[in-house]
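Milestone M4 deliverable, item 7.
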Amino acid sequence: MHILVVTAAIIHREDKILIAQRKSSAEHGLKWEFPGGKLNYGEDPKDGLRREIIEELDMEIQVGDIFEVISHHYGERHILLLCYHCGYLGQRPSTRDCQDFRWVTPAEMAQYDFSEADVPVVKKLQGIK
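Output delivered:
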């Protein structure tokens, strides 16, 4: 079994964070997540995250420090999720490669059905251990 390295952006705009909904046809379809995606072989994680956000939401971000690292198993697949604090640069996101997106506070995240790997990140943002 190999580890799949995935990046995720915690994009801050004032007191809210951007979350994205996976397309219905995607694995874990219609689940909510912090936007990002798989790294290409040899790709720098911050560069890969910037690329994924352009591909998924058609917007530029400023990638900051690591916020959390999650190791999660989806059946036979093992992913290592690298979550980064990211700065919003004022460009409106679009649903280029996602179903929907929302700006929400950490408290409001409880109303959304997140992918399993993202749940610990939600809890950390909410201050729950």
